[in-house]
Amino acid sequence: MIISSASDFRAAAKRKLPPFLFHYIDGGSYAEHTLAKNVSDLEEIALKQRVLKDMSQVDLSTELFGEKLRLPLALAPVGITGMYARRGEVQAAQAADDFGVPFTMSSVSVCPIEEVTSQIKRPMWFQLYVLKDRGFMKNVLERAKAAGCTTLVF
């Protein structure tokens, strides 16, 4: 199969992953209304192809939260990424680092914060799930700060 669209990636993931992992990354919260709206909105976007145009001077860089980004995007947090690929959080963070965009590490990651930040050059963002266990939250926030995380995502 040649992957040439987002739906191709979805089909490949469905074939390759165990069902519980596929459903975790394919689904949304609650009744999945926001997921359905996001998919619908993306389907409405039509890119205008322009061939043989000089793209050498195009600059998509921007600044967000005091950080210079090469592209106006960030890798969103995906929980248990390390279950999808060996050291998955490290791989995703390195890819984001290579492209000059932020990686957002999930509170429910497989790899430790310190391992991920030690493998990248740019600052990492950290997503915090607000939990009843305040001791856990305090510890994970201290670790994220000590590891150099610059932005907290709720």
What are the main properties of this structure?
154 residues, 5 strands, mainly alpha, single chain, globular, three-stranded parallel beta sheet
Q: In words, what does this structure look like?
A:
- There is one protein chain.
- This protein has helices at 6-16, 19-26, 33-43, 88-99, 113-117, 134-146; strands at residues 62-64, 67-69, 104-105, 125-127, 151-153.
- Helix content is 39%, strand content 9%.
- The radius of gyration is 18 Å and the shape is globular.
- By secondary structure, it is mainly alpha-helical.
- It contains six helices and five strands.
- A three-stranded parallel sheet has the order 3-4-5, with no helix packed on it. Strands 1-2 form a two-stranded antiparallel sheet.
The termini sit apart by: 37 Å
With strands numbered from the N-terminus, the spatial order across the biggest sheet is: 3-4-5
Number of H/I helices: 6
Helix content estimate: 25-40%
Provide the β-strand percentage band. Answer: 5-15%
* Average pLDDT over all residues: 92
Structural class: mainly alpha
Shape from CA axes? globular
Rg to the nearest angstrom?
18 Å
Give the SSE map.
Blueprint (H helix, E strand, L loop, with lengths): L5 H11 L2 H8 L6 H11 L18 E3 L2 E3 L18 H12 L4 E2 L7 H5 L7 E3 L6 H13 L4 E3 L1
Parallel strand pairs: 3-4, 4-5
Antiparallel strand pairs: 1-2
Short description:
The N and C termini lie far apart (37 Å). The mean pLDDT is 92.
